[in-house]
Design brief:
Blueprint lengths: L3 H4 L2 E9 L4 H12 L4 E7 L6 H4 L4 E5 L4 H14 L5 E4 L3 H9 L4 H14 L4 E4 L2 H10 L5 E2 L13 H10 L1 H4 L34 E4 L2 E4 L5 E6 L9 H18 L7 H10 L7 E6 L5 H10 L5 E6 L5 H8 L2 E4 L11 H8 L4 E4 L14 E4 L2 H12 L7 H16 L2 H17 L1
């Protein structure tokens, strides 16, 4: 008798990039393995580890290669023809528009790439895409009929419990306040140990920068900084300088509102801020991700003269990243899309963790961000700084606008998950094509 495994179908998920940085493709693999009961082979670039649920799944195997879309689309089509299998494309964005960022849309290489993508795209047996705007573009200009499958967070993106927050911040203590790092409003020389507040009643070894534990009770510190998280690939389609300028404007505007004297020594000012009541809080920006422009912007950050704002750049494991999102007060997305037709997965993840978002405005972003319900949009550094001033005034207990957006993000989080969206929209297409 044949084994059960031999009777199961098999599918290859070919990722045009690093599997660890391709959450949507990871979720496809999980759904194919669990909801369709298929054996799944992932072919992708190496570089970053995917989520543990992928790495340890008994029905998923990962094969590391280097597949760019040229000539991968042709190779996959040929393979599907030889093996008499079906070929489905999930359109996240267009390769030719990404190439156009460095070469210009009219370059012969970009035009050739465009032709290649559209020609072999039409050879697929079925297509999925990420927005209604992209669906319309594919139908009108590529003659491709695609089913919209909106990104949704999987179940491991969820609001973080107080215990999880405390454990995470304790794990990240040396990343937030490196022993030999620069000193700023988060990390000062006069402190007795890493990240302890100036007030003695909160100074004990179980403290983190944001939380304190007394016995079995864990609570958020009242004079903690506000935590703002942004995930970036450090590429030209995300202008990180917007966030730097907005942070500098927030810093200067708060000093102006409070009438602070520029002659006050920075370290004395930092300690005074930490001990006193805060009309406007310190802001700690944690920026996650890897990419080519990271070193350039880290040098720019070092040159900024900031009183109430600090930046940390780090790379988190696939398990800690959702915990960080669920522990933050606000998310920022700088994604604007090379095509203007895709949506930032990072915002989907933030909503999954109940985190409200300030997102860069572009053509189809309102398919995801509902203004003044779960987030805000900005088109300039000044607008983003205005939003920081409005949302964080009275932090942490008297910032009603931020709390309202938080409630909206939590409602978005509970409304849908990836498994439901996939079963409703992707599974019927796959079943129809296979049958």
């Amino acid at each position: 008798m044949e084994s059960t495994e031999k009777k199961r179908g098999r599918v290859a998920v070919v990722v045009l990039g690093d599997i660890g940085r391709s959450p949507r493709m990871q979720y496809h693999a999980l759904s194919l393995a669990e909801q369709e009961n298929l054996l799944v082979d992932i072919v992708a670039n190496g570089g970053s580890d995917p989520h543990v649920s992928i790495r340890e799944h008994h029905s998923i195997r990962i094969y590391q290669m280097n597949p760019p879309s040229v000539p991968t689309l042709a190779a996959v089509k040929l393979s599907s023809w030889l093996r008499r299998s079906k070929f489905i494309i999930d359109w996240h964005n267009f390769g030719y528009t990404l190439l156009g960022l460095s070469h210009g849309r009219n370059h012969i290489i970009v035009k050739t790439y465009h032709w290649f993508e559209s020609y072999f795209g039409r050879m697929a047996d079925g297509s999925l895409c990420v927005t209604k705007a992209m669906q319309h573009e594919l139908a009108e200009n590529w003659e491709i009929k695609a089913t919209v499958l909106y990104d949704q967070p999987p179940e491991f993106f969820h609001p973080t419990s107080m215990k999880e927050k405390h454990e995470l911040f304790c794990r990240l203590k040396n990343d937030i306040c490196p022993p030999n790092g620069a000193f700023d409003c988060i990390h000062t020389r006069n402190e007795k140990s890493f990240c302890f507040e100036a007030s003695n009643e909160l100074d004990h070894p179980s403290d983190s920068l944001f939380t304190s534990q007394v016995g079995n009770d864990i609570f958020l510190k009242p004079n903690r900084p506000a935590l703002v998280v942004s995930s970036t690939s450090w590429t030209p389609d995300e202008d990180f300088s917007i966030l730097l300028q907005a942070a500098l404007m927030y810093d200067r505007r708060v000093s102006g509102v409070l009438g602070e004297d520029d002659s006050i020594a920075e370290e004395k000012l930092w300690l005074d801020i930490r001990k006193g009541e805060q009309l406007y809080p310190r802001l700690l920006f944690i920026i996650t991700g890897k990419g080519p422009e990271k070193a350039k912007y880290e040098q720019q950050i070092k040159k900024l003269k900031l009183r109430r704002v600090a930046f940390r750049t780090m790379w988190l494991s696939a398990e800690d990243y959702p915990l960080l999102l669920g522990s933050a007060d606000l998310g920022v997305s700088l994604h604007t899309s090379s095509s203007g037709l895709d949506l930032p997965m990072k915002v989907v993840d933030m909503f999954g963790c109940g985190l409200p978002v300030c997102a860069a405005s572009y053509s189809c972003i309102k398919e995801l961000v509902k203004v003044e319900k779960n987030g805000l949009l900005f088109s300039s550094p000044s607008e983003l700084a205005d939003e920081f001033m409005m949302l964080f005034k009275g932090f942490p207990d008297k910032c009603e606008s931020l709390k309202s957006l938080k409630d909206g993000a939590l409602a978005t989080s509970s409304s849908s998950k990836w498994s439901t969206e996939w079963e409703t929209h992707a599974m019927p297409l796959i079943s129809e094509i296979i049958s």
